Amino acid sequence: MKISYNWIKEYLDLNVKPADLAEKIERTSVEVDSVTTPSDGLKKIVVGHVLSMVAHPDSDHLHICQVDVGEDDPLQIVCGAPNVAAGQNVIVALPGSRIADNVKIKKSKMRGVPSAGMICALQEIGFSEDVVPKKYVDGIYVLPADAKPGDAVYDYLGMNDSLIDLDVTPNRGDMLSLYGTLHDLAAIYDKPLKLDRPDVKETGTDIQDQLTVHVDDQLSSQYRMRLVKNVKLAPSPMWLQIRLWNAGLRPINNVVDITNYIMLKYGQPLHAFDYDKFAGEDVYVRTAKAGEKLTTLDENDHDLDETDIVIADEKAPIALAGVMGGLSTSIQDGTTTVAIESAVFEHDHIRKAAQRHNLHTDASQRFERGVNQAGVQEALDAAAQMMTELADGEVQVGTVVGSDNVPDPAVIDITLTHVNAILGTALTMDQVTHILESLGFTVAVSGDKLTVTVAVRRNDIHIPADLLEEIARIYGYDQLPATLPTGRMTMGTLTSKQRLMRATRHSLEGLGLNQAISYALTTEAKAQMFMMKASEPTHLAWPMTVDHAVLRMNVISGLLDDIAYNSARKVKDVALYEQGRVFYREDGNDRPSEEEHIAGAITGTLMPESWNQPAKAVDFYQMKGIVAAYLKDMAVNGDVTYVPNADMPEMHPGRTADILVHGHRIGFLGQIHPLVAKQFKIAATYVFELNLQAIIDMPKQENQYDVISRYPAITRDIAMLVDDDITNDQVVALIERRGGAFLQSVKLFDVYDGVKVPKGKKSLAYTLTYQDKHETLVDDAVTQAFDKVSKRLEDDLGAQIR
Amino acid sequence: MSLKDKLSELRQRGLADIKQSSDLKDVNQVRVQLLGKKGPITEVLRGMRDLDAEERPKVGAFANEIRDDLTNALTQRKEELERAVLNAQLAKETVDVTLPGTPVAKGEPHVIQQIVDQIEDLFLGMGYQVLSGPEVEEDKYNFEMMNLPKNHPARDMQDTFYITKEILMRTQTSPMQARTLEKHDFSQGPLKMISPGVVYRRDTDDPTHSHQFHQVEGLVIDKHITMADLKGTLQVLAHELFGDKFDVRLRPSYFPFTEPSVEADITCFNCGGKGCKVCKNTGWIEVLGAGMVHPNVLKMAGVDPDVYGGFAFGVGPDRFAMLKYGVDDIRNFYLNDVRFLTQFTKKG
Ligand SMILES: [Zn+2]
């Protein structure tokens, strides 16, 4: 809500600049979106009096006006507005002026006729189209007859006021009004507040004889109406129009404007009905009936819901209560008798109705948050009084009351000790009492205890914690000391799981992969790629897009999206890892279980090409090296084995391995299937994905010290021809099993399957290292062991030792 | 010419020859010429036979002296020449030290991760536990136990990714706080925790909105926790993340799960508090929400609000990163352009 600085000053003697006031509000009450002065940025815009007007000889819509701008000679201005006429006072942008959006106005020629400036519409000097009176929306604005030519226009239009736009939190409905804001400011600045009270002059006959209301008080806890006869519809006086448009409301006519003005002032939405349009003299507040319809005054048709609260006459709904009135009973030319409604509607119904009909109005916004239930009659009286003053109306005697449940004010006990204990302050009883009283609460003190009776307008205050907030904010958060919690010591340590997750990230970064964080919500198809176990997908009920509709069951597909994003931007070398959750769901369960995974993806080269290092495209073995180094870093206790897997549909059938620890599958690695690469529009990419939770749960090797032997090691190399389908694992396993007591290690140093070996064979070469930890090995012992293992290789694997 | 004079002349000539030798081969030749069996010294010594017994030892000593001098000179010359050879060799080996070093593969942690780690380390140091809960949550923990009952106006169904009526993608990490509060044994000490993690909102992705982002929420519950403690804690956090020059101010706000509720601003990065476009001329930038835990939240978790109380706060690492580094599009964090990821290399 935009609140007027000038209006505030009418009630509070404040000696602060608008910007400072706004800052104070922001730091003490609610957020401030902006402080604006409508005349800011405008220059040389004055009142002009149109002395004469003739049609432009070469145009069918332009007029040539002679305009008195308070100088010796009138200005000649060419104007295209349809409503310009001699005798009007108008807004003139002089040559050299600045109008809205920093547009500069210069002398010019329009179709050959010199024009010294511009006659402006309100929109052209910065008014939003939404607030311009309908009459002037499509043309220039006409100023009052007493405006003085040559004067700056700003004061005539209220443009020198400063407008503070409050972003009111849901709990502070009271701040959606001048009076509510004044109450807060009076407390903040510790100033006395004198609010004016209405004084209604009633004439005519008793309203009870003319109108009866029937109210379901579950829907409307207070429902009041007054009747004003013989109103004369007219535009509102300028001061009232200014209040409205500065608050973002369009002036319409005096009767409607009064209801809006009262809403701004008191926070109480009112509605004005044309009483003569009622079918009968009875008005009902009820829920809508099935099939009922209503055309609201914005001329939209609504099918009403059975939970909508409506105001109805004998025949049909005439208003969507608390949201918007109906067209049929709205104030129109010819209206003479006005029924003013001032009421409280149940907020939940209003919120839902506003949502359902997509009608978020100033009224619904206030009813949703709650209005001042102690001020319903006052607002009604103030409106009636203004209708007498501004529309010559005759307020009929009395108010019809359909329901009248004014809540009791909240009474809250709190102790000074508690206040200081929670805020960390050393406030005195006087300070606390003063703050609460300045907010308009009453306080009774007994020893350490305060019994606080809360003003009804503050419907957000129910418990001691609510009072603490009032005390803290008015006292000032800046004045709170800054301390750290004391009390019993606690240990802050990461759990072993958290430590391993950090170590995982550090390890993979050390191995050259960048951490990615991709979207966990993906497409249905991608969610189900690279699955490590069977699972049902989990769908969002109302996704925003199909791209983010299903929870991922693998991490790799997100990394492939990332690679595709890079690739589309010509970044060809990408090495990423991601640590994150996958979501597995069993059929019949609503909720998936979450499993920590770690995945990596590399495309292009890992090591950047350099003047002394050629680019080497990533391959299976590079990715395997990374995975192996990572698993070694994690001290996984147990044999890690790699078993070919030709059955994963998204993976290259010949270049994929399952990763097993102790025979238990924890993940896989390999090249993605070329068709998958094509689908993602990316180049050859190698990936791995591991069940990180499994790694976390696995037993880990403890570090231990192994004596480094003082005795020399002896090495022997062995090269052999074996059939192509014999794997390195088979050879190494056999050597290790049959290598004898002194065999320390087996290292592959050459693989060859080129032209020099027979078809179907390959050559493998290993270095075997022997060592005795307790004495120097004798050559004979090594030779014996070596011959033995060579023989086994020949016998068991059909190797030809070379 | 006496033998002695011959020897002196020999030395003279020998030293000159040595000095003139220009490489190791030369040196060796000179050595053989001077000191060899057929060399002049040997020859001179042979002539000693003709001397009287008295002179002989003197000349012998002198001859030995000269032999030693020449030997030393030869050794010295040899070393000199060897050194020169080595120097020449080293000169040939000179590299261009300005050529780039051989690249090594090195990955970077994600910038959001760096901020989360930094926050975690800070609070670990202050005795907090780090607890991360499920990303798919129950409505009960995400909303109801946060004092947001089903019809609460602040709970906008539109903003939440529901899976079923009761199951949703968590919109905050505070459900983990509710879960922990429920279980915590206060006889064992206060509860001090932070819960970092990914959260989800039903938003259309644009430069300032992401349907997935991060949060770190903190909670401290004990017998004597004050709002001043909250202010002090937030100050420490701001100083850790941004630097000592940054000040914190609190403003009233509204969250259903805290009362009083505040929003915390820190000194504007861009202008240092003088006022600029980034901070809308206020000198302050809003960075987090916080407050004293609402008694209803404690009650619902089975904690007696008359005995225990404390504070909670929630920060957005994405927003921090955007502010700290001037990142202008939140989507950068989730699209993983390596040219973006590798910019954030300063750890700690
Ligand atoms: Zn700034």
Question: Mind sketching the topology for me?
Answer:
The complex is a heterodimer of chains A (802) and B (348).
Chain A: E1 2-4, H1 5-11, H2 18-28, E2 31-36, E3 43-55, E4 63-68, E5 75-79, E6 89-99, E7 103-105, E8 108-110, E9 113-115, E10 118-120, E11 142-143, E12 163-167, H3 178-189, E13 202-206, E14 212-215, E15 220-229, H4 238-246, H5 254-266, E16 270-274, E17 282-287, E18 293-295, E19 301-303, E20 309-312, E21 317-320, E22 324-325, E23 338-345, H6 347-356, H7 362-369, H8 376-391, E24 394-397, E25 400-404, E26 411-415, H9 416-423, H10 429-438, E27 442-446, E28 449-453, H11 464-475, H12 496-510, E29 514-515, E30 521-522, H13 524-527, E31 550-551, H14 556-568, E32 574-584, E33 593-603, H15 620-633, E34 640-644, E35 651-661, E36 664-672, H16 674-680, E37 685-691, H17 692-697, E38 714-723, H18 728-738, E39 743-752, E40 761-770, H19 779-797, E41 800-801
Chain B: H1 3-20, H2 24-35, H3 40-46, H4 55-92, H5 111-125, E1 129-130, E2 136-138, H6 139-142, E3 167-169, H7 175-183, E4 191-200, E5 212-222, H8 227-242, E6 248-255, E7 258-267, E8 284-293, H9 295-300, E9 309-315, H10 317-325, H11 332-335, H12 338-341
Parallel strand pairs in B: 1-4
Antiparallel strand pairs in B: 2-3, 4-5, 5-9, 6-7, 7-8, 8-9
Helix pairs in contact in B: 1-4, 2-4, 5-10
Q: Please, what is the CATH homologous superfamily of the largest domain in chain B?
A: Bira Bifunctional Protein, Domain 2
Whole-number mean pLDDT of chain B = 90
**Which CATH class of the largest domain in chain B?**
Alpha Beta
CATH class of the largest domain in chain A: Alpha Beta
Radius of gyration of chain B: 43 Å
Envelope shape of chain A = elongated
Low-confidence region ranges of chain B: none
Percent of residues in helices of chain A? 25-40%
- Examine the coordinates and then state which fold CATH places here, giving the name of the CATH topology of the largest domain in chain A: Phenylalanyl-tRNA Synthetase, Chain B, domain 3
Number of strands of chain A: 41
The largest β sheet of chain A comes out as: 7 strands, antiparallel
Number of helices of chain B: 12
How many structural domains are formed by the residues of chain A? 6
Q: Identify the quaternary structure here.
A: heterodimer
